[in-house]
Design brief:
Layout: H1 20-26, E1 35-42, E2 47-53, E3 64-70, H2 84-92, E4 96-100, H3 105-108, H4 112-128, H5 130-133, E5 135-145, H6 147-157, E6 176-180, H7 190-193, H8 200-205, E7 219-224, H9 230-243, E8 247-252, H10 265-279, H11 286-290
Parallel strand pairs: 3-4, 3-5, 5-6, 6-7, 7-8
Antiparallel strand pairs: 1-2, 2-4
Helix pairs in contact: 1-2, 4-6
Length: 291
């Protein structure tokens, strides 16, 4: 595929901030579910934190579905604060929701390769600790925005790149994906390939669309139609349809990259994510519950 279709430029380098007001608009309860911080991985440059939002009436004997969010920021920056409102909402709906830190270039001197490795470590940690977290190890969702959407997709689709010393008998593959304007291809995109030293093999390895299979995890992708990365979503959906893989795409007319961080799209995309999670049996249908 021609690289001219995907003009990434400086789209991925900015930090997206979600304020307290937006969080309050998304959350359905005045009191947020309790949270707890853990260190899921120790590296030479940093201990990596994961913040868990526990649902009301949660018990460690539960087997609840879980979701892990990864922030955006072009693999160079970003903050674990992103996706706090979405995690708060999903915890209030009954899921165990997590926000995971990972190494980035500005703070840790890494490339996208290590970002993918950390994302895999986070999913593996959730599964390894499912019993104490009250999580169903067979219902774990990986989610994220932009570069965070890319590494979330890679946890499901990228071969290898597991951290040295981890127990690879415990799968790092999630059971579903929710991807907010994700990068879905490195291979053939000069601006992205430069970030990994133009390594051809690695570029192919971390191009999720290239590894899509019929039995890959069900996927929801959300894009604004004015996002210059949106053709990546179209390419993913085309291949998904050809394979018979389950994928859905939500589009916001005229919206640019990062649209989902701002009202009214914060609320609309969160509602669409909720609908998808209901459809795969991870959340209870509100309408059915009200009957």
């Amino acid at each position: 595929m021609s690289s001219r279709r995907f003009v990434v430029g400086g789209l991925l380098g900015f930090v997206l901030f979600v304020g307290v007001t937006a969080a309050a608009e998304v959350a359905t309860q005045s009191d947020s579910p309790p949270t707890k911080s853990f260190i899921y991985k120790k590296t030479k440059r940093a201990d990596l934190e994961i913040i868990i939002h526990f649902p009301p009436a949660w018990k460690d004997t539960d087997k609840r579905p879980a979701i892990v969010f990864f922030f955006g920021g072009g693999w160079e920056q970003g903050t674990i604060k992103q996706f706090e409102p979405q995690a708060t909402l999903l915890a209030s709906r009954g899921m165990v929701a997590a926000r995971a830190d990972y190494r980035v270039k500005s703070r840790h001197g890494v490339t996208p390769k290590e970002c993918v490795e950390d994302a895999k470590s986070a999913i593996r940690w959730m599964r390894q600790n499912a019993v104490t977290l009250g999580v169903d190890p067979d219902r774990i969702v990986a989610a994220g925005g932009s570069a965070g959407g890319h590494i979330a997709a890679c946890t499901a689709l990228t071969p290898g790149l597991d951290a040295e010393g981890e127990d690879t008998k415990v799968s790092s593959e999630p059971n579903a994906l929710v991807l907010f304007n994700p990068v879905l291809r490195f291979d053939g995109i000069p601006q992205l390939m430069e970030r990994i030293g133009n390594g051809e093999a690695l570029g192919k390895a971390i191009s999720p669309t290239l590894h899509l299979k019929k039995d890959s995890p069900p996927t929801l992708i959300l894009f604004g139609t004015a996002d210059r990365l949106s053709p990546m979503g179209e390419e993913f959906m085309k291949k998904s349809k050809e394979l018979g893989h389950r994928a859905e795409m939500f589009t916001a007319d005229g919206q640019p990259h990062g649209f989902f961080n701002r009202p009214p799209w914060l609320e609309r995309t969160t509602q669409r994510m909720d609908k998808f999670l209901v459809s795969i049996g991870y959340l209870e249908d509100r309408a059915e519950k009200a009957r």
